[in-house]
Design a protein that fits this description.
The chain is about 30% helix and about 25% strand. By secondary structure, it is an alpha+beta fold. The model has no long low-confidence stretch (mean pLDDT about 85). Strands 3-8-5-6-7-4 form a six-stranded antiparallel sheet. The radius of gyration is 19 Å and the shape is elongated. The chain has a domain of about 130 residues: Riboflavin kinase-like (Elongation Factor Tu (Ef-tu), domain 3, Beta Barrel).
Length: about 200
Amino acid sequence: VGRGRRGNIDFLKERGRESGFPVTVVDALYEGGMLVSSTKIRELVAEGRMRDVRRLLGRYYQIRGEVQRGRQRGGRVVGFPTANLKISEEDLCPKRGVYVTQVVYDGKCYGGVSNIGYNPTFGGDRLVAETHIFDFDDDIYGRPIKINLLRHLRGEKKFSGTDELAAQIRRDIEVAHKVLESARKEQLLCGDERSPR
């Protein structure tokens, strides 16, 4: 029970008696043939299986943080500005690669594509989530955002140069718009926030 499976039901009952809270044992819960457990959810996140994660969590897996100033290559060099969130190696990190995402900022929801990884085309050495937000040009450095991961599109790749990278990003954006439109039709939106643009 719990992280590292260090506890068990008897342990919880004893702690409950000591601390004055009740412990009720319930049957295991299954969803779509999968056991709903924190271990299973962590495995699915690490594998990039975000649709299954959503089914077990009842919501999208989300990364949160303050937008960091990057090296400004996204907008200036490649032509796709990004909002960057630093990711800790100790946190539960999704499979490296490109995702269709929904970005929640200031109570509004925007579509986007995110690369989670090390930016190998430019020799990056720190783990970061770089998100190109659709139809958005606000200055949000230092501001908090939430990134919902909808679908893993492809693994992270080192490109031969910025032209090849930009062409792939354009293809990723095309696919992302289709996925977001499908989510819109199924009403799989950003929680209470407005529909993605």
